[in-house]
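**User:** Everyone, produce a chain:

**Assistant:**
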Amino acid sequence: MEGFGPHLMLDGYGCEQRKLEDLEHIYRILDVFPERIGMTKIMPPYVFRYTGVRPENWGVSGFVLIAESHVSVHTFPEKQYLSLDILSSKPFDIERAVAFAREEFGIEKFEHNFLDRGVEFPKEMARATHLVRRDREEVAERAGRAPGRSRATRAS
């Protein structure tokens, strides 16, 4: 995989309502999830209850920052729905992440999308340096001058 890293977006339907509304349960999940998928938690999870404009859209949201990026969850208990995102700068076992979420939230049906984020994100400085140098050379060639030399003008 090239680029920044994988982004898993999971939508869970038919979830157990009591699990979706339980702040402590969601905190515990976010607390252990990073380690379960080989990531490094760098802060305790932050979980809070919110109320939507429409009363039935209330729920619980939470996230945890990981050294690799983040894990977030948003629940809608009355709709038995959750949205879970994992963005990481390194590969992780998607099947394991999905299975863990399904078990912890009692998900009956789910759909998920997976993206490779930042496909042009240079992971290595040497490669980044090479890409920048190449781009500068192309610009210089189009401008009709040697790479690395700028046109100097002298005020008269």
